[in-house]
Amino acid sequence: MLQYFAESRWYTIVGATAFYAVTSYWLLYAANENDLIANTDFVYWLAVTASTVGYGDLSPVTPAGKLIVALYVIPLGLSIFAMVIGRIAAWVSLTWKKGLLGMNSLMLNNHILVIGWNEQRTMLLLDLILKERDAMAERPDIVLCVKADITNPMPGVIEFVKVDSFNKDEDMDRACVGTARTILIDNPQDDVTMTTALYCTKRNPDAHQVAYFNDDSLVSLLQDHCPKVECTPSVAIEMLVKAAFDPGSSMLHHDLLSIDEGQAQFSVKIPQSCSAISVAKLFVNLKRKHDAIFIGYAPNGLVKEMVVNPSLDATLNPGDTLFYIAERRINAINWSSLDAD
């Protein structure tokens, strides 16, 4: 019997609690403890008695009532109360453990999904994402999805899902791949990155997707099949050469990429409700009103058609993504003021 109650379901606990309440009521009624069973006073008294809080404002007065409370109400109430509290604690512990191990199924929308595990590089990636998110007006949830045998590296800060495959529907549904607004793919193996990017494009073609490759030759291959995916190949060698011929280049690029200090590069999409804006007016007013420098734009958000340092005679249209350098992200832009003379 002890094992049965230790492994009991919630309906068993509810049934035992109901039986305890009904029998306690009738025993107190039989003992003429009318004050204890009056209206809501009975529920209140039974709760404080079973939990041993014992406020003392209500108590049995008849000898039979005292015996019933001492021999039945308190012992049985303590057992049921301990069983309920133990079950709640076990459920909370199991839920926390499942979240730490990545076993839970999430229900999220418009979140940032990071797929892959590269140890310290992924930790740095998550740190930078968190800092970028803190500067945003809205703060989307961040989900880390891995196949590696690890636990949540940032419990309580990010969501965590562990899967067997990055292209298996039942696994990736747990990470809500179909409702993510941004998907970042960074795996140690480029072939896994390639197949994951193809899968994510099929499941969520509207998401902004970024994939990192060690082998630059795979970038064009992926973009032939998924032109919307933004690929970021390794540029360490290019940076090394650039710094050799243009001293200070590495520090400049580090400053533009870092969000901890100095200036940084940001982007924003021109709303569809805006009218076309000339580059000349945009350049001057962006600097004048927001102390930011316009550096280029992507027509209709297509990064493959990026235009850097465009002519002052060029025009930006609604839906274009403009890129700028500023001390911090500009969350509220008065677009009509940028087109003013």
Automatic annotation (TrEMBL):
<dbReference type="GO" id="GO:0034220">
    <property type="term" value="P:monoatomic ion transmembrane transport"/>
</dbReference>
<feature type="domain" description="Potassium channel">
    <location>
        <begin position="21"/>
        <end position="92"/>
    </location>
</feature>
<keyword id="KW-0812">Transmembrane</keyword>
<feature type="transmembrane region" description="Helical">
    <location>
        <begin position="70"/>
        <end position="92"/>
    </location>
</feature>
<keyword id="KW-0407">Ion channel</keyword>
<keyword id="KW-0472">Membrane</keyword>
<keyword id="KW-0813">Transport</keyword>
<dbReference type="InterPro" id="IPR050721">
    <property type="entry name" value="Trk_Ktr_HKT_K-transport"/>
</dbReference>
<keyword id="KW-0406">Ion transport</keyword>
<feature type="transmembrane region" description="Helical">
    <location>
        <begin position="12"/>
        <end position="30"/>
    </location>
</feature>
<protein>
    <submittedName>
        <fullName>Potassium channel protein</fullName>
    </submittedName>
</protein>
<dbReference type="InterPro" id="IPR013099">
    <property type="entry name" value="K_chnl_dom"/>
</dbReference>
<keyword id="KW-1133">Transmembrane helix</keyword>
<dbReference type="Pfam" id="PF07885">
    <property type="entry name" value="Ion_trans_2"/>
</dbReference>
<feature type="transmembrane region" description="Helical">
    <location>
        <begin position="42"/>
        <end position="58"/>
    </location>
</feature>
<dbReference type="InterPro" id="IPR036291">
    <property type="entry name" value="NAD(P)-bd_dom_sf"/>
</dbReference>
